[in-house]
């Protein structure tokens, strides 16, 4: 319930607390490419561990936490409901963020976006290169673990970059609709790039799926 509702809303975390009946559990989404398809920019071992271990753990913990939340809700145990909120946010955000991240990447990615998205980037950042520099700088600057994001400010009708700590979801944290997320947790790059996050960020631009980002941009404007 948590992430399924959130995905439809572009990333807003809002558990369906009014539903006590049976529900379908969250599941780990398949990658749209093989684990080794993003090499040499992101190696296959990283992708396998990242997807099958880290993302899977968020999914499993989210399902377990939601079950506990439903039990607390049925009992009217408000204290337990409040205590479970951090786990819902962390694991729900982890599931949601990674579900976006996998589709933001492609072995046929890289280069520049086209059409409406490119024009919006030029309008809001001055040029595509300035946008890359800004999102890279924001992502490098994340202290500890977190994400760098390109998001859409629906109220202002413009693109913005932002950083989120840990697995905090972009829309639930900033109100921006997520278009492109860059995972800067060490598990996303350490096996290949060690502690040199800037090298990972330089490489990841070669596999950005601009078609997916453009589709998200078009959808959030409707």
- Which bin fits the share of residues in helices? 40-55%
Can you count the helices?
9
Summarize model confidence as the mean pLDDT: 91
Q: Give the SSE order as H and E letters.
A: HHHHHEEHEHHH
* Cα-based radius of gyration, to the nearest Å: 18 Å
Poorly predicted parts: 1-21
Strand order of the largest sheet: 2-1-3
Q: Main beta sheet, described?
A: 3 strands, antiparallel
Distance between the first and last residues' Cα? 24 Å
Strand content: 5-15%
What overall form do the CA principal axes indicate?
A: globular
Coarse structural class: mainly alpha
Number of DSSP-assigned strands: 3
Catalytic activity: 2 superoxide + 2 H(+) = H2O2 + O2
Family: Belongs to the iron/manganese superoxide dismutase family.
Pfam family, one: Sod_Fe_C
Protein name: Superoxide dismutase
Short description:
The protein has 222 residues and is mainly α. Helices cover 53% and strands 10% of the residues.
Descriptive notes:
This protein has 222 residues and is mainly α. The chain contains nine helices and three strands, in the order αααααββαβααα. Strands 2-1-3 form a three-stranded antiparallel sheet. Helix 1 packs across helix 3 and helix 2 runs antiparallel to helix 3. It is globular.
